[in-house]
Amino acid sequence: MATLTLQRATWWLQISRTSRTFSVSFTTALPRRHRPAGSRASQQAIPRPGHPRHHDQARTAFTSTKVYHAQQAQAAQTQQAPTTPIKPRPTYTSAPKPSSSTAAAAATSTTPPSQDLSSPDPPLQDLTSGLSDQPIILEEGARQVDWARSFHGLSTEAFSTEAAAALLQPISFDDIEVKPDGIIYLPEIKYRRILNKAFGPGGWGLAPRGETIVTARAVTREYALVALGRLVSVARGEQDYFSPEGIPTAAEGCKSNALMRCCKDLGVASELWDPRYIKRFLAEHVKEVFVEHAVTKKRKKVYVRKDDEIKYPFKEVKGFGA
């Protein structure tokens, strides 16, 4: 640290410099009248530590140093500010005309321009606003059937006897499942097995009739069941979801729900919509039990098949008051 001090009768200047800082202190004082040495007035003329005049002098020196540091910081920022370089103006010179052999060699060695790989990826689509999967609308003169609008082949003739037998075959009791609220149903994979048995794999399909609609809690879309090149039925499927991440799974469940509703027109598993059949199945194959959650200890009544067992996290109890 280097210090330079200049002192006069009415002012005092001190300059200090280190490797990182640079400070200047400047103090002024009014001229004092001569007092005899040893007198009380001369002793009071020299400010002691803690005296108000001593604080005034220290405050003046501190203020000057603070202002200087602020000016130095502002000057450093001004010097570090980036400046836009001025591109030199291109100069054009006449090049000699290449010969035929040189032009042919240049044409064979020309490489395609490289692609810009630094461009950002497009943002991900928000599925809660819809899937934007509107079916393709064919032109009026197209030979292919536009299943998004057409009803081609609807009720033109009945299916074969073999196909009708496979579609109208009674459902086995072992294929029917029951929900905890007592609703019986047939798993969607078994509807597909019945259609494959009646028309063969590839002989039927589901054609979307509109885009997928995503609401706050459900996904819905309309589908058409086409079998052997003929429209059979049109139904709208639906499926609930609980978070945006479950929308793709809900869209697949919506398709299966539409397939189940379309199969009603073919008579597939028609017993499941017969009230008499439902009551008889619940009385013969379903039981009501009270269960308790292993963690929350909450109890409720559920319906299960008589040949099924209660699984974790529930366990069977005698009743609400037990």
Strand and helix order? EEEHHHHEEHEEEEHHEEE
Summarize the main sheet: 4 strands, antiparallel
Q: Which structural class matches the secondary elements?
A: alpha+beta
Give the averaged pLDDT, no decimals.
78
Could you give the distance between the termini? 88 Å
Strand content: 15-25%
Number of strands: 12
Q: Rg to the nearest angstrom?
A: 46 Å
Shape: elongated
Instruction: Please estimate the helix content.
Output: 25-40%
Task: Please outline the helices and strands.
Layout: E1 2-7, E2 11-17, E3 22-28, H1 40-45, H2 52-80, H3 100-108, H4 161-167, E4 177-178, E5 184-185, H5 188-199, E6 204-208, E7 213-214, E8 218-227, E9 230-240, H6 247-263, H7 275-285, E10 286-293, E11 299-305, E12 314-317
Antiparallel strand pairs: 1-2, 2-3, 4-5, 6-8, 7-8, 8-9, 10-11, 10-12
Short description:
With 322 residues, the chain is an alpha+beta fold.
Task: Provide an overview of this structure.
With 322 residues, the protein is α+β, with helices and mostly antiparallel strands. The chain is 28% helix and 22% strand. The protein is built from 7 helices and 12 strands. It has helices at residues 40-45, 52-80, 100-108, 161-167, 188-199, 247-263, 275-285; strands at 2-7, 11-17, 22-28, 177-178, 184-185, 204-208, 213-214, 218-227, 230-240, 286-293, 299-305, 314-317. The strands form 4 sheets. Strands 6, 7, 8 and 9 form a 4-stranded antiparallel beta sheet that branches. Strands 1-2-3 form a 3-stranded antiparallel beta sheet. It has a 3-stranded antiparallel beta sheet with strand order 11-10-12. A hairpin with a 2-residue loop joins strand 8 and strand 9 (230-240). Helix 4 packs antiparallel against helix 5 (188-199). The longest helix has 29 residues, at 52-80. The radius of gyration is 46 Å and the shape is elongated. The two termini are 88 Å apart. 10% of the residues are buried.
